[in-house]
Structure formats: C-alpha cells, structure tokens
C-alpha cells in the first residue's frame, strides 16, 4: 500500500508518528518522491502529522519539478491557466476558461495537457502540481487569479465561491468576511469540514487584525465545529477553550489497543454527541450508542444496527469526496462508524472483511485518531466464542498494513500509531517544562546558548518556519543553527537527533558523510 511507504518516510524524517490518512494525503499532494516527502515531514508540526491539526494549504515543498516539467519554467499563459485551476473551487472547464482569460491554444501545450486532465466538461489538476504552483506563486499573481475567479463566480450566481475568492482580494472588508462565514456555514452543513475550517480560520485572522470582534466570535464558533468534524482536536482546543474540555476528554480516553471497555466507548460517543452540531452527526452517534448498549444482551440485533448505520453512511459519490450531500456525516463520525463496523464483523468471525474495511478506510478517514476498540468487551457475549489469538493479530496487523511474517521473533502485536498518540501529550495543559526530552546531559557540549534554545524547540516538534517566527530571525539563520547542531552532535536529520538525545550525548550514531541540505532540517 503506497501510504505505508509515505508513512514510514515521513515518520523517519520527522521523528514523530504519522497518521495513515495524513500520509495518504501528503503522498498525493507532494508527488510521492522520497526527498520531497522527507522535506514535508520536517516542515510540519507533530500535531499536523498526527492528524490532530489541519494541514497547511499548500503544504511546503522543496522541488519545483514534476516529472519532465519544471513548473518555474512555465510560460505566463500556462502558469495562469494552472494557477487558476489550483485556486478554483469548482472543476468546471467553462469557468476555468472564463477566469484564466488566455488564448485557448495555451490549453493544448504539453505542460497543460499533462498536468490538467479534461473530461465531460470538468477538469482534474494533478495534486502535486497544485501544491508546487501555490508555493511558487507570488502575492500579486494569487490576488489576480482570485479576483478573476470571483468575477466569474458572481456572473454565474455562485455566491459561495464568489465570497471565498473575494475574501482573498478584499481582506478586511466586513461584507466579504460575512460572505465567507456564510460559505463556511453552508460547507459544514454539507459535511465539507476541511474547506469550512480554512474559510473560518481566514475570517478569524482577518477579523482579529482589523478589530471586527463580532465576526471573530462567529468565525471561532464555526472553526471549532469544523475542526471537531475533521478530528482536529488540537485545533478545536486552540479555537475554543470551552470545547477543549470535551475534546480533551474524548482524546484522552484513547488508550492502547484492547484497553477500553464497552462502557468507556459508549461514554466517549456521548461526549462527542454533546459537542457535535450537525443533525446527521447527532443521529448517527445516537444510533451507534444504542447499538453498543444492546451488544451484550442481543449481539445479533446490535450487528444488524451497525450494518444499517454503515449502509446509511455509504457515500453516493463515486470519487468518495465529502461535502456534496447533507446526509454524509463528518469525517470523524464516519470514522467511528467504519471502525465499529469492522470490529463487529471481526467478532462475527468475518476477519478478512473486517480487515478489508479498515485497510480501505484508514487512508481516507481520521480513524487513526481514535482508539481501536477493546477485544475484551466484544468477546464477553456468551453466545460468541472468542476468536483465536492468531486471528486477532492478523486483524490488527492487516489494518495497520503489516504482515505477521515480517515481525521479529518474540514480538506480538507492534505498537500502533494509535498507541503512540495515546501515550503522547498533545492536549495536556502546558505547565512546567515544555521539553519532552531532557537535554541536561548536553550542557557540557560546545553548543551555544542559542543552539541549546533551538535544540529544545526542535525536540518539541517546532518546524524551521515556526522557529523563524518565534525567534524573529530569518529562515536562513535558523537553518544555519540547525546544521551546526547536527554537525556538533554527529547526526544527519531530526530523527537521528531525537534518537541520540534520548540515548545520551556520548552514544555515537554511525552514519556516512553527509552534505546538509534544507530538506534535512
């Protein structure tokens, strides 16, 4: 499975666990090259890699080449077409032609036809090309493209798209911000929590900068609901401290596999039910709670209810995209449905089908931010024989993308992503020391005071860009400091740095000579 390769590459470069659905998205958005993925891994925070905070759009990239094309070398007309396609909220070719406002002959060049596929009046832009284009485009180019798309959307009567694009060209205008919030509210109603959260964040930042307190309050509420729907518990904490208590309780109930009881899972769903605003989400969570509540009394009836819920939440769209149907639940709620459906099938001895569901859904939904349900409570039903241990191992390993033949001797079920996250401190109150790894044993090294400061922040998961902002220095200066830290400690990347600090400063890490580049930072 390609996402497993991406997950391993990102984890090795960053030193942090990476959620499968995050790895899958980054694989598609970056183009999948190893060096590109490694750079992305070191550029994102641990919360973003864990799936607890929304990814930036665009994600940071290093290489501007995509196959035979260097996107920096595109002609102005080609760049205009592809940049307009990158920013468009619809995939209609007619809108793209109107907004790009270039001669149609430029739509048939090699670069455009290879990166932009057109079929039946709709276009599909290569996701990696979109990432690169948004990274290299200047502010003037972006503003111009947004303005052109806003005019086209207005002519076509698409108020939602018009509000989104206008907000990028007239930032600070109360009218544009109110239109943006209306768009975000509609997106949440249709289950499109990711664009809704981005729209609300844009409105929050702009309202805060221009002193629009009423808009800031409304945007914060919308952003919180969108973050919860996407499983971004860290973001929900940041937006709304009142909701933070509920979000923290939900996440901190996540324990290593097999540690949660049936009652704890029911309480977890009830906590989520109290803070979700969409009607379809509340209905599905209520159905799940009822199914789990009757499990021990009537396992067959519970199985039937879970199957009905799973069928109800099956997406009608062939491409599996959210946001076009009010009857589609938020990603987090759908993740719960798929997870419990798989576990109920597993207890019915349908192990292969259960594993197939998780293998299919884990790269798409935030299942990884949830604890795998306990096998202990599901086997308490006297009418069901407990499955053999080998089946349990095969089920969990398959869901994680592993094969039992690849396990070292004596190793049972490996620590999963979920277990690593459950043992972390993403949502714990920030009191006392922030350093997750002690560096006291490094005080005798020749690191400068600034290098000690940067090392401490690196071990907390800060990226080079975050260090640049927090220390008020250029990104180049931060990269120089990081290179010197790597050289003095004899490591080549952040993963080796974390490993060495944890083992002790005097433990050498054998590695070949290395030329330090920005992607290693």
TrEMBL record:
<keyword id="KW-0238">DNA-binding</keyword>
<keyword id="KW-0804">Transcription</keyword>
<dbReference type="InterPro" id="IPR036388">
    <property type="entry name" value="WH-like_DNA-bd_sf"/>
</dbReference>
<feature type="domain" description="HTH luxR-type">
    <location>
        <begin position="441"/>
        <end position="505"/>
    </location>
</feature>
<dbReference type="InterPro" id="IPR016032">
    <property type="entry name" value="Sig_transdc_resp-reg_C-effctor"/>
</dbReference>
<dbReference type="Pfam" id="PF00196">
    <property type="entry name" value="GerE"/>
</dbReference>
<protein>
    <recommendedName>
        <fullName>HTH luxR-type domain-containing protein</fullName>
    </recommendedName>
</protein>
<dbReference type="InterPro" id="IPR000792">
    <property type="entry name" value="Tscrpt_reg_LuxR_C"/>
</dbReference>
<keyword id="KW-0805">Transcription regulation</keyword>
